[in-house]
Amino acid sequence: MRFIGKHALVTGGGGGIGRASAIRLAQEGARVTTFDLRETKAPDGIDPAHWRGVALDCTDAVRVKAALAEAEAAFGPVDVLFNNVGQSARERASLFCESEEEVWRFVIEINLMTTLRMCRLVAPGMQARGRGRILNMSSDAAFSGDLRLADYATAKMGIVGLTRALSTELAYHGITVNTICPGAIATEAHQRIPQETLDNLVAATPAGFIATAEEVGGLVAYLGSDEARFITGQTIAINGGRNML
């Protein structure tokens, strides 16, 4: 029970990797807050008194700041921050020279800017207490150069740069900052991907399979724990060997 007495906040915690990670942290004793467009309920086996599922738009800076204050009033200051919220704009994906600035702004806002804002809100308190864990979600797409994903790759690579800069600045205060970079992970979103595309992903993955969201949750729990105190500034891939960073 590595997180007894600790408060973990997961953005994008309504499904997929975010929810699996939130559940894992709760199972290990954390009081968990999730921010998501969907209000999340405590899963079976988790005390509802130790779970807050807040429905909000993570791009709404004013609402996020207020919700964070409410969460910390209820559960205490955030000890573990997992910036998981993000998405691509696949339905409007295009080649770079045909791309629209409006789409770029959306993708950068939902991925990079939400991460930046949460770090700015939470890091000062961690500094004052001399401890904390920040985990930022990037993507294999930041490194793979996939067609029609220049906006998403740019936003996710920006998160890598933010992580590295923050890790240097915050290490002196007992805070670690790391990036998680998943490849193909089985989530609800993958159910909307054509089978042929999924088959190609598996074929391009040396491990020969797609990981589960729960496996990523295990990595989140480790990096968020006291055991990972000497790991900071790193981009940790969980992709079955598809890209080696």
Written account of the structure:
The chain has 245 residues and is an alpha/beta fold. The chain has one domain (7-238): NAD(P)-binding Rossmann-like Domain (Rossmann fold), CATH 3.40.50. It has helices at residues 16-27, 61-75, 101-129, 141-144, 150-170, 195-203, 213-223; strands spanning 7-11, 31-36, 51-55, 80-83, 132-137, 175-182, 185-186, 211-212, 235-238. A 7-stranded parallel beta sheet has the order 3-2-1-4-5-6-9, with helices on both faces. A two-stranded parallel ribbon has the order 7-8. Strand 1, helix 1 (16-27) and strand 2 (31-36) form a beta-alpha-beta unit. Belongs to the short-chain dehydrogenases/reductases (SDR) family. Keywords: Oxidoreductase. One of its GO terms (molecular function) is oxidoreductase activity.
Structure, briefly:
This protein is α/β, with parallel strands linked by helices. It has helices spanning 16-27, 61-75, 101-129, 141-144, 150-170, 195-203, 213-223, and strands spanning 7-11, 31-36, 51-55, 80-83, 132-137, 175-182, 185-186, 211-212, 235-238. GO terms for molecular function: oxidoreductase activity.
